[in-house]
Every structure is written in structure tokens, then in C-alpha cells.
Write a structure and sequence with these properties.
The complex is a heterodimer of chains A (353) and B (90). By secondary structure, chain A is α/β, with parallel strands linked by helices. Chain A has 8 helices and 19 strands. The two termini of chain A are 39 Å apart. The relative contact order of chain A is 0.17. The C terminus of chain A is likely disordered. Helix content of chain B is 37%, strand content 6%. The model of chain B has no long low-confidence stretch (mean pLDDT 93). The chains are: A alpha/beta (353), B mainly alpha (90).
Chain lengths: 353, 90
């Protein structure tokens, strides 16, 4: 069995940043990712990011992805793609399907950066073809250059809903409306303004009552909800659409953390059950760290800083840098970046970015 | 007729089946999984656990006071020939 010092699970913004940070200090980092391309969701983000310049704001997501990959190459990070981590045991052994072959790798430290899954919304007809996650629609238009449908309704006015709507408009799709059960738009005003300027109505206090169609979605029926999100009878309106995009939040992918016994807690604003981490992004299991959306749904810029924090903490605990005032200062700098990025939002005020 | 639709797509478990499991006393994600098989399929509850949490909430069982479901190997769908290392045309 192959033995390494550090394995990072997931080659998204958090995982790449973690491995780069560790590799900078001499740790030979191995990154495993189940996809055939690295970068996580970065390469489908064609819009500019927010934040300060230091955290690569003003840069488009895919450019950030390219930058991270170049850095990873420069520092000699090994990235293994088509590697599905299917299990983990309490001796830090990872069970992997490496390009269709089973294998095992043992690591001294493991950083889990497993990201998140799109949340569904269940209603009669939600299993009809044409109901999909907004992230899936984004992958279709921005990666595969295929439009998911011709007439779309977007459910959810968070940043994902707003941004994906804009990407769909750019791809020439007709977006009939964005709806949200909330009484106000939950994403950034700047994104919402772009949508409004494009003439797309944002309908608040409405939810999906049902989707109708024989072999696929043909119509969506909406219904008004009160402040407690109870449906108000006789308020149905409907739109002829072939696609219903769900942008109703993300759910942290915690399977591996749960398997090895990390303690989790429920945080509704951060997406659900998430592993408890300390100021080093260390979980309740000594050698297991976690970073990125898996520890709570926030922005990619935050995922990158969390990854750096975990990577640096691992480099220290593996003995590649001494645990002194200087290295503690470096950790503190990353933490201060994190609190700046979270300013005004608190931990988890944002749905996603 | 009561409103019904599939909640767990992998195992084709419906809303009414989940509700009846709750009535029978299955009030955590793990208990509902064991009672109905919801969350036991290919995706291992990645999709439906969010929906089941919402259904439990409607019945007054809040996730804050409950536990996340157990997770077992394999967390991704794996073909048997991949697992046992037999060659196969991919």
C-alpha cells in the first residue's frame, strides 16, 4: 500500500489551496479527485468574484482555477484524477477506485475538501425530466455548451440562482422568471440588478406547487406562501416552461467525515450537518482536517483561505515548519483574511457565490 | 387522495411511505432509512436526506436535536468488477 504524508480529497478551490500551501513548505501533497478535470466548480464560473484583490476578487472563476493549477504544478503537487474515494478507516487508510481499479493509500494527515451537493426541492412532478439543479444547468451551458431547455423558470433568488440565470440569458435561453418563497431577494443586490435590467421578473413569496407534463416538464404551477411558508389557497399562477432550475441551496458532502466518526452539528445557514472544526480546520479526529463548502456553504474565496489554513496547519503538525511565533503569525494572517471575507455576513450569511 | 410523489428516487420511496414510517416511530434519518430503504440506494441519501429532513421538521422533529445518518463504504456507486479488480472493457 502506498504511504504518503498528506492526502487532500477534492481538487476544488479548497483542496487545491490546501495542497499548494502544504507543498510550499515542503510537504509532498497528493490530491485525489473523482472528476476527470480538476478545479471543482471553478471552471464553470465565468463571472468575476467579489472580495479584496488579495483573495483574487475581480478575477473570473475559471481564471482562478487556472492560477491554482499552475501553482500546484509549480510546487509539485500530485493530482490524481478519476480517483473516487469510497471509504476511509481509523488507520487513515483511504479506499479508492483509481480509474476503475480498487486501491488503498495510507496518509499521516488527511484534508477533506469534498465540497457540496445541490439541494433538491420536492413537489408533485419534481422527478419529471426538465427539473434540474441550477448547478447542473450551469455545467451544461458553461462547460458542455448545451442549453438545458428553451423556457426556464429559476427557483431561488440566492447568488447561485441569480448568477446561473444570467449565464442562461447569455446562452440565449428564455428565463421566464426567478421565484423565491422568501419575502426578499436573498442574493447580492448587484446580481439582482443585472437580472432586473435584463427584464426578468423576480417573483417573491411564491413556491412551486407542482410541475406538469407527460414525458417532461411542460408547465409549472406556482403558489403564494405566507410568512411561515404555508401555501395560500387559490393563489396559483402558471408558466409554460420546459425546464425548472432549482437553486435552493447546497448541502455539504460529509460522507467521509461521518464514516470516520468526526463529530457533526446542524447549522441551517451553512447548509445542514457539518463537521466541527477548530481554528486549524482540524476535525474532532486528530489527523483529519476539513475545509471548503464541506465545513459550511460559503464562497469560493472563503474555501481557498480555509484550505490554506488547513494546509499550513498540516505542514506544522507534520514537522515541516516549526511551531513557533512565526508560523502562528502566518496562521493568524489567514484567519484575519477569513474574517474580512466574512465581514457583514457573519459565518454563513451567504447562500453561495 | 393524499398528495404523493417519490422522495427517494434510488429506492422509489414515496412521501406517504415516509410519513407513515414517521407515524410508526421512525424519527431520524437512520431510522427512516432502515424502515423504508429511503437513502439506501445508489446515491446513499445524498439527494433525499434534505427532503426527509424537511418532512421530519414538519412533524416537529428538528435536525438540531437529531443526528446525521451513518455513512458506510462505498460512498460512491462502485461496480463489482472495479472492486474485485477484474479487467473489463471500460
Amino acid at each position: 500500500m502506498r504511504k504518503v504524508n498528506l492526502v487532500v480529497v477534492g481538487a476544488g478551490p479548497a483542496g487545491l489551496s490546501a495542497s499548494i500551501e502544504a507543498a510550499k513548505h515542503g510537504v509532498k501533497a497528493l490530491v485525489l479527485d473523482e472528476n476527470h478535470k480538476p478545479g471543482g466548480q471553478l471552471f464553470k464560473q465565468i463571472h468575476k468574484f467579489f472580495g479584496s484583490e488579495q483573495q483574487m476578487a475581480g478575477t473570473r472563476g475559471y481564471e482562478i482555477g487556472t492560477k491554482l493549477l499552475n501553482l500546484a504544478k509549480e510546487y509539485g503537487v500530485e493530482i490524481k484524477l478519476n480517483n473516487r474515494v469510497i471509504g476511509i478507516d481509523d488507520h487513515n487508510t483511504l479506499a479508492i477506485i483509481d480509474n476503475h481499479k480498487y486501491s488503498e493509500i495510507r496518509a499521516k494527515k488527511i484534508i477533506l475538501c469534498c465540497g457540496a451537493t445541490e439541494k433538491p426541492l420536492a413537489f408533485p412532478g419534481w422527478t419529471l425530466p426538465g427539473v434540474m439543479g441550477a448547478g447542473a444547468a450551469q455545467t451544461l451551458v458553461n462547460i458542455h455548451r448545451v442549453v438545458p431547455g428553451e423556457k426556464i423558470i429559476m427557483v431561488g433568488s440566492g447568488n447561485v440562482g441569480l448568477i446561473v440565470t444570467y449565464h442562461l440569458l447569455q446562452a440565449g435561453v428564455k428565463v421566464k422568471a426567478i421565484i423565491d418563497a422568501s419575502h426578499k431577494i436573498t442574493g447580492y443586490g448587484v446580481h439582482a440588478a443585472k437580472i432586473k435590467r435584463a427584464g426578468i421578473p423576480i417573483i417573491l413569496r411564491y413556491t412551486v406547487n407542482r410541475a406538469m407534463g407527460t414525458n417532461q416538464v411542460e408547465k409549472v404551477e406556482l403558489i403564494q406562501v405566507d410568512k411561515s411558508f404555508n401555501k395560500i389557497p387559490c393563489t396559483q399562477i402558471s408558466f409554460d416552461v420546459d425546464t425548472i432550475c432549482l437553486a435552493v441551496g447546497l448541502s455539504p458532502s460529509t460522507e467521509l467525515a461521518r464514516m470516520i466518526g468526526c463529530k457533526l452539528y446542524y447549522h441551517p445557514k451553512l447548509g445542514g450537518y457539518i463537521p466541527m472544526v477548530n481554528q486549524y480546520m482540524q476535525t474532532t479526529i486528530e489527523d483529519i482536517y476539513a475545509a471548503g463548502d464541506m465545513t459550511g456553504i460559503e464562497e469560493a474565496s472563503i474555501a481557498m483561505e480555509e484550505g490554506r489554513l488547513a494546509g499550513l496547519a498540516c505542514a506544522i503538525s507534520l514537522g515541516y515548519i516549526s511551531d513557533n511565533a512565526q508560523s502562528q503569525k502566518a496562521l493568524e494572517n489567514i484567519r484575519s483574511n477569513l474574517s474580512q471575507l466574512r465581514m457583514g455576513n457573519g459565518k454563513g450569511g451567504i447562500i453561495n457565490g | 387522495m393524499k398528495e404523493d410523489y417519490v422522495v427517494c428516487r434510488c429506492e422509489e420511496i414515496t412521501l406517504q411511505e415516509i410519513k407513515s414510517a414517521i407515524k410508526q416511530g421512525a424519527i431520524t434519518l437512520d431510522e427512516i432509512k432502515k424502515y423504508t430503504r429511503a437513502g439506501m440506494g445508489l446515491c446513499q441519501g445524498r439527494i433525499c436526506s434534505t427532503i426527509i429532513i424537511e418532512i421530519l421538521k414538519e412533524h416537529g422533529y428538528l435536525p438540531q436535536y437529531s443526528a446525521p445518518p451513518h455513512s458506510r463504504i462505498p460512498v460512491r456507486p462502485v461496480k463489482i468488477w472495479e472492486y474485485i479488480g477484474e479487467d473489463q472493457d471500460v
